[in-house]
Amino acid sequence: MLRWDACIFVVACLLGTSPASAQETHHATGSIAAAQAAAETTPLGEGKASVVQDVFPIVDGVEQRSTPVQDTPKDSWWEVDGGLRRGPADELTKARNAEAVKRMFAHAYDNYMLHAYPHDELKPISQSYTDSLDELGNLKLESLSDTYEGLALSLIESLSTLAVLGNFTEFLKGVQLVIENTSFDADVRVSVFETNIRLLGGLLSAHLIAANLGSWLKEQAHEHPRQADRGKGRSISAGNAGQKEHKEKSETEEAFKYNGELLHLAYDLGERLLPAFASPTGIPYNWVNLRLGLRPNETTETSTSNVGTLVLEFSALSRLTGDKRFEVKAMGGLLALWKLRSKHDLFGTTINVETGAWINKSGGIGAGIDSYFEYLLKAHILFSRQNCGVDFWHMFRKSYEAANRYMFDNSWFHEVDMRTGSPTHHQMTSLQAFWPGVQVMAGDVQAAKEFHSMLFSVWRGFRLLPERYLYKQGRAHPTENYYPLRPELFESTWYLYAATEDESFLQVGEQLMIALLKFSRVSGGFASIRNVVTMEKEDHQHSFFLSETCKYLYLLYNSTFTDSLDLDYVFSTEGHPLWLPDEGLSDECAWTREEVEAAGAGWFPHPSGYSTEKHAAWGFWKADTHKERRKRESNMDVLNESETDRPMFSTGAGQVSSLEKEVCPSFSFLQRKDATLRMMTALRTGKQKICTSKAARLNKPPSQHRVPNVCFREDKHTDHHCVLNSECGVDGITCRPRTCHPLGVCTSSSRFL
User: Fold this and answer.
1) What is the value of pTM for the model shown?
2) Known catalytic membership, residue 467
3) Helix axes of 153-164 and 91-115: crossing angle, nearest 10 degrees
């Protein structure tokens, strides 16, 4: 098994240098400070950033570079701005990097509040605003409102990040502004998906933080009285070094007067989104008018991610308010979608919500489907105590295994035809960068590190991540080569560091930060990049830069916020922390299976070629015993399957993967208290009981208890002897079937044939 610290070798190879020479590169922290100083003193406007000397020729103001950087000269931006560091990252370095992220966020947030609030998003180059909520996901810009004037989107998105950064004074100011000035009674047609993850998720997360803020501040003041005192009255703008005079009554004390106003706003917004579920299938329309509801002849096409990315926020809203309608509707839509998967457990990208017919039958792990995978696993983490019979783990397991079987392509992931599993598009999309984070949460750490290294190699080649990268051709997509400050690579870097404490990921984070400072920072905020080849800027600072990009980058160097969460939590796909408080919540389900089926999950035509699995995702109901549940799953996997067409992960009767046994990780194995954090700790320290089958613990010494990852299946015979391929398991690193060698032993590599 590859050691965690071997990643420094991998990243060194990506740099095009030896590990020894990589250790001799400059210290990156000083480079971050230099980049910040240059960015703060040099007016960048719409022109190219010039923190360091460019190494590519410039003709008519355009950098001449059409392919990724292959060999980086010694005096290039990479070498000047810092490479791999020698030795461990000391706490002072981490603190300085965390402070640098605070300055980045402050620059973006202050400019939004100065030039754009209460509108939706900042235009940093022109230092103006855009009311963009009705444009999100609206590629054709159809049915735009003439009267819409914004809903303070970026402020609502920023609230949870302010708390993560420890600026509770500004957090409370923002909460007060939202409470006093926000109304969702607007005549505007919006994307249900975007409104859910950005506004509803932002409000729910801010409510949970505000409701717990008093106890957090008391605990912080007790443990670190000087730090708590220093936090009072401080301006958000660390870049301006502003220090306000102390008020007689600290604004942090206002937290105790919070009475759930944000939850009331979230409830109102949720009700305005409910008309989207008025389809014959229960699959929600993607568009709804916040004031008028569902318009006549609304577009019937929606994406898989749009349907699958409602269950966290809607279920949390139901459980916090006691109104089960939201969870019932979201669950009904999700299970209706689940029943329309192909016989290969694959999904297309877009579907007709009225007929259930797939429109775009090509799908992958990126745009249009990405957060579907993410929310199945996170719903299992968040709702496993009170899952009402819906087996999110089963749904995730089947989907994850299908992705590994059909989409994995020599360290990349291509898109496939859901009907056949055959490849359709050999490309990396920037949204795929979330996948290593999901792999980490599933216990598949080694695979996560490998895919992350590929993604980072693309970032390093272009110095930012293009929206689409044609990996077979080694170039960015000719038109979709922009970078809108996306956070997914930052997110996965944080997950990997949290799970492994491999310091090479801290160094990756430094390089990500330096690139943003060099290419994206302008005097009025952080601009998107229209073209990663020319580094032409776009006058747009997306709200997710505030809610996700800065947040995950900060958590990489300061985990105070997550360390303080003494219960199971997840980050939504928009980076908003969500959890369910123990107080006032019952372990009993508030709704019935019949209610969800009536909402759409009971509607399941079975056109030819699609799954006819009778139980779908229905949890093998609580009444089932564990033994009955395992028996049904086993029968489902091997029933009516020939040797040639059996699924990749059904390698013979009685052979079950660690993922199928729910032991990698088994969240039920962990106690309720801080399960997520201790899962990460277990992965980091090697104390992986959660990734160990009972049989392994009984028959093998402790040193051999680890399961390589979630794809792994043991060979039928302990001595690995075989006669047929069916007696061989599945390789835990490549997720591919092992084969029976002519000499009579199972092998994972064709090199031995």
Assistant:
1) 0.74
2) yes
3) 160
